[in-house]
Amino acid sequence: MKKSRNYIPILIVLLFLSIISALFLGSQNISLVELFDNQFYQVKDIVLSIRLPRVINAITVGALLSIAGLMIQNLVKNPLADPYILGLSGASASVQLLIIASGIIIPFGLFVFIGFCAALFSMLLLIKISSTKRLNTQSLLLSGVVIAFAYGAIISLVLTLSPLSTTKPMLFWLMGDLSYSKTSFYPILLLIVGMVWAYKFHKELDLIARGEFFAQKSGVNTKKINMLLLLTTSVFTAVAVSMAGTIGFVGLVVPHIARIIVGNSHAKLIPVSALIGAIVLLVADTVARTIVAPIQLPVGIFTALFGVPLFIALQRKIK
Predict the structure, then answer these.
(1) DSSP secondary structure letter of residue 144
(2) What distance in Å separates the CA atoms of residue 35 and residue 242, rounded to the nearest whole number?
(3) Domain ranges, ordered by start, for the chain
(4) DSSP-derived secondary structure letter, 26
(5) Rounded to an integer, what distance in angstroms lies between the CA atom of residue 250 and that of residue 308?
(6) Contacts of 53 (CB under 8 A, 6+ apart)
(7) What is the pLDDT of residues 171-184, one digit of tens each?
(8) 2-318 maps to which CATH number?
């Protein structure tokens, strides 16, 4: 027990170091002297106006995807499930790609809000299709996979018909891109409220992870908890995709890392998953910005490159 309590302070320190690295590394490396010297006013502008919003969004998106992955794996009882398995990301991506393809310039906040609304509409459609009297997780999963294929076809059609001038930004968005980050505290507030809300039911989540029948025998309202899991996954995924596109492997791999570190207790899994997800995405984004600077690559490339071998290693360890 004592060992597990030490992980959160360690992760907080790692997150702090990741933030410092992200703020000072990039196409132009910055020193502390330059940051606090009034002569280097352009340096302050780079750190505060460009890099800091990107760091905040990377932390927020990483935590959102990790918690969403933890929730969806509990809901469908499948260790291979990730936040995108229900097709919600496809709804958000389809609408946002149509905006990019049209060449319409709108505020980033409105862009995020439109994608968020599209994903929530898809969630309501999914619930309508997959449930009759109660929320059936198997039907939910199958319906989500089918809907995801439909959105994939729409995305392919948009990419095919779009002018070449917009194809690159669209591909970047599909692979995950934080280069358009603007500071917004609404996603951060949503993350905090959602984590507190999920944490409130951590005992019920522990029981339902062992199976719905066992949870029902233990007095858990499984319908209520399943809806909690679905809503948390849907809202968190919708916000994350709306902010940064479809970033793969974070929501799949991070919950497994958290379980290896702290076990299956959701009281520890929820904060630890959020911290690990924030660190992973922030480090990946820093690498994406610096490895071939000044060219910036989509962060999704590096989460996949890190995630595939890591998941294989975790799979062997779990066996």
Answers:
(1) H
(2) 32
(3) 2-318
(4) S
(5) 10
(6) 181, 182, 183
(7) 887 888 787 767 67
(8) 1.10.3470.10
Those residues whose C-beta lies under 8 Å from the C-beta of residue 287, and which sit 6 or more positions away, are 302
Rounded to 10 deg, the angle between the 222-244 and 108-130 helix axes is: 150
pLDDT of residue 113: 84
Which candidate, 87, 194, 233, 75, places its Cα nearest to that of 148? 87
pLDDT at 67: 94
Phi-psi region of 245 (alpha: psi -120 to 50; beta: other; left: phi over 0): left
Number of residues that this document lists for the chain = 319
> What is the spatial distance between Cα 286 and Cα 288, in angstroms, rounded to a whole number?
5
pTM over 0.85: yes
Residues 58/178, Cβ–Cβ less than 8 Å: yes
pLDDT, tens only, 191-214: 999 899 889 888 888 888 887 778
Torsion of CA 196, 223, 81, 131, to 10 degrees: -130
CA–CA separation, 244 and 61 (whole Å): 7
Our measurement of the distance from residue 263's CA atom to the centroid of its chain's CA atoms, rounded to an integer in Å, reads 22
pLDDT-derived band at 147, boundaries 50, 70, 90: confident
What mean pLDDT, rounded, does the chain reach? 82
Predicted pLDDT at 4: 46
Q: Please report where in the chains the tokens 């066992």 appear, as a residue.
A: 214
89, 72 Cβ separation under 8 angstroms: no
Among residues 251, 211, 235, 231, which one has the least CA distance to residue 81? 251
Q: Would you say 241 and 112 are in contact if contact means Cβ atoms under 8 Å apart?
A: no
Confidence of residue 62 (pLDDT cuts 50, 70, 90): very high
Q: How far is CA 266 from the centre of its chain?
A: 18
Residue closest to 170 by CA, chosen among 7, 27, 298: 298
For the chain, give the percent of residues with pLDDT over 70. Answer: 90
pLDDT of residue 36: 64
